[in-house]
Structure formats: structure tokens, C-alpha cells
Fold this protein.
Amino acid sequence: MDKIKKFVKENLQMILLVLCGLLVITGILAIVFGAANSGGVIKVLFIIFGIVLIALGCSLVFYAALIATDENANFFLYDQRSKRNISIEELDFERVNKKMTYIMTKLVANASKVWTSNLFEDNREFFDDNEVFAPLVAYKVIYDLADRANESIWHLYLMADKSVIASIAEALEMNSDSDLGKAVKYLHENAAGDYERTQKFLADNKKYIQNKMTKYVKVHISKF
């Protein structure tokens, strides 16, 4: 059953076009048969039936076209207002960050969950299917932390399990950013109950994180 569902999902557009062809051909044949029939009522019914089938076929073409548009819509490039992908040259950090904020709302219920649970482990199914998002989620987590003025969030960061920080570092290493990953681990391990050093480090490196996120998306744009 799962294989059938997968086949239908991957070939839905082709299936719709085949059904469209069958409906249109059947509709034309019904109209021709009705026109050739001498009976008044039967003639009208066949012609109406044929027109309905052709209309259904045309509606399937329209739906198939919508599916094609959705398939070509890039997560980071697609613009809801213009209903098209913007050029990669127009892609900036503001758009990347906004899109990643949306992803984060799907992965964690609130900001505190980032540090009280391991979002990479808790969302294993998502990352198994969307591994390319892992480094971006890691960058987003530490970028948002740099912006946090709420002391309670910082205290949750200080109390976070080592495995949570290690998962973030591992995700950063997927983008060959082991230096930042090591820095994040080192600062957490040596915080000694004081988050100010980490806060300053992240604030000083906000531009770096912005650039890494934007560049990562552009390099891997075809995967989104």
C-alpha cells in the first residue's frame, strides 16, 4: 500500500494528464455518437454527457498545471505575492531568516524547548527526509540566542544538556563549520553559570552567521 501511495504521489501529474486524455476522448466519442443518433432525448443526453466529460478533462489539465507550479516552487525563492520564484540574486538574509523562523515553529513549540530538549533527535523523521536543513537550523538556533534579551532563555541555555549542544555543533560541521561548532561547545562547557561571554561572542559574530546562512542556502538552493 505504501508503495502504491508513493507511486501515485510521484506520478500524480502524469496520471492526471492520462485521465484527462481519456475523459476528452470519451467525451468526443459521446458527442459524435449522440449527434449520429436519430433519437431526440438520447441524442441530447449523449451530447451533454460528452460536454461534461470534456469539461472534467479540462479541469484536470488545470489542476495538473497547478501541481507543476507547486513542484517548481522553491522554499526560499517562492514569492506568495507574485506566485513565482524570485531570482537567487534577490535572495537575502532577511528572507532566509523569515523562512527559517517558519521552520522553527514546526519543529519546536516555543523558544525554551530548543534548550530543554534535543530538537534534532525529537524531529528525527523531519531531518531524515530534509537533512539539508540541519545546518540552517543550527545557525538559526544560535543566531536567535544572540538576540535573546530574556534572561530565562539564557539560563535554560546554561542548563542545557551537553547532547543538545553537541547536536548543534554536529549540524554546523555538516557545513564544514567545525570552528563555530567547537566554539559553541567550548563556551557552553566553560560558562560556569555565566552566559555573558557566550552572549558577547554570538553578538560579535551575528554578521558571520547571517552570511553563512545565506551562502549555504544559495549553494544548496536546488535541494529546497
